């Protein structure tokens, strides 16, 4: 298998995982989640890097830097999902397949969370599986890449 590179990008406030609102986002910290994903990536034989930023511009820069370096992106853009044309443009400009991830089921929350600027250009969307959604997404990304490069 080729050594695929996968980038996990987390947006604003996700650095607060495990610190506040455990009833919505769970008790696990971002650091724990990233470590679990790194371990899983090792088992799957892929390279993984994890980044988080609270800033829209920095997320755009991180997406741009992935150009021609990263094979797949797993992104939870947090609240920017519902507002950011800039993140959408960055993702559509680099031609890297991505999954949109949400910890909560955004569709059973406030109506403003039902709109996503990313869903229609994503390969897939995962929402409502808690932090396990990232692991599902990592498995699915590897399957996607294997299939695409057959
Ligand atoms: O469900 C998700 O993953 C969201 O992307 C999370 C965003 C929210 O704005 C989206 O509508 C859905 C919010 C992230 C906030 O993360 C926190 C984590 C722990 C404590 C406080 C905030």
Into which percent range does the helicity of residues fall?
Answer: 25-40%
Label the overall shape. Answer: globular
What count of helical segments does DSSP give? 5
Helix/strand order, N-terminal first? EHHEHEHEEH
Q: Identify the strand order in the major beta sheet.
A: 2-1-3-4-5
Uncertain residue ranges? none
- By DSSP, the count of extended strands is 5
Alpha-carbon distance between the two ends: 10 Å
| Mean pLDDT, all residues | 96
What small molecules does the structure contain?
ligand CA2
Cα radius of gyration in angstroms: 14 Å
**DSSP strand content:** 15-25%
Q: What structural category characterises the helix and strand content?
A: alpha/beta
Q: How many strands, which pairing sense, and closed or not: the largest β-sheet?
A: 5 strands, parallel
Outline:
The chain is α/β, with parallel strands linked by helices and 150 residues long. The protein is 37% helix and 17% strand. Helix 2 (30-44) packs parallel to helix 5 and helix 3 (56-65) runs parallel beside helix 4 (85-94).
